[in-house]
Amino acid sequence: MISAAIDRLVDVETAASPSGVSGYVAVDRVRKIFNPGGRHEVEAVAPTSFTVTSGEFVSLLGPSGCGKSTLLMMVAGLDRPSEGTVSVAGRPMTAPRADNGIMFQDPTLLPWKSALDNVLFPFRAMNQPVAPHIDRAKALLDAVGLAGFHNHKPRQLSGGMRQRVAICRALVFEPELLLMDEPFSALDAITRDEMNLVLMKMWEEHHRTAIFVTHSIREAVYLSDRVLVMSQRPGRVIADVKIPFARPRSLEIEESAEFNDICGYLRSKIQHRPV
Q: Quick check: 220 and 227 in contact, CB under 8 A?
């Protein structure tokens, strides 16, 4: 039997996304076409709209190749929509901004620098003084369980430890918006669970607006306030699902019937094929 939680879920299939959407992050009728007008034109993202409120954790969930990462890159200002607009804090995203923190699947650490220097690298990249931020960088590393590893090079760290450094690097300059593109997908299941706990702890402490791309249903439900489900390519948001669990959360919540009912509901949305 489907639990009562399903009755509280909100579906954009039954309520069309409005034009002129507003929110801290506002994606308004955004469409992305690669090689437009060319022989191999590909529509990666169909016209779609959604918003994210300040301080909210939202996941983009969907099958591989559905345009999740493309949509995230447009929110980050690293790619431009073919149609529609993306705005953050009321300003159009036409280029990357210093107040956005970004994490990728690969932690992209500089191999010749220590964990601490990698965390501090954004300040050097922006030609800002590093010294005022050293204590904060060390505190972040300690908070994610890397006390004693400040001077280790990436090759001396495990995959999970390298991603912990990447989390600290994304948070060190206190970004208002944290964007994550499947940052844990290359990790084994046990390490991935550990990283979800680390991310949850850091997000609850700093409470930044966050958009998290994943193809893991359970990860999306565990981490998020809302889950946006995307269709097969060309991707568009087909469901907007509120996650009812209170915070803080432990991994034990994944064993509950309500959690599994929501996962089943999301899976049915992902597997749906329009006739």
A: yes
The sign of the dihedral angle between the CA atoms of 250, 251, 252, 253 is: positive
Q: How far, in Å, CA of 143 to CA of 188, rounded?
A: 22
**CA-CA distance, 68 to 71, in Å (whole number)?**
5
Topology of domain 1-89+178-192+207-275, CATH: Rossmann fold (3.40.50)
Q: What is the pLDDT along the chain (275 residues), one digit of tens a residue?
A: 445 555 556 555 544 344 455 679 999 999 999 987 777 889 999 999 999 999 999 999 998 889 999 999 999 999 999 999 999 999 999 888 878 889 998 899 999 999 999 999 989 888 899 999 999 999 999 999 999 999 999 999 999 999 999 999 999 988 899 999 999 988 899 999 999 999 998 888 888 899 999 999 999 999 999 999 999 999 999 999 999 999 888 889 999 999 999 999 999 998 765 43
φ and ψ at residue 59, rounded to 5 degrees: -105, 140
Domain with CATH 3.40.50.300 in the chain: 1-89+178-192+207-275
Angstrom distances, CA of residue 37 to CA of 40, 112, 187: 8, 44, 39
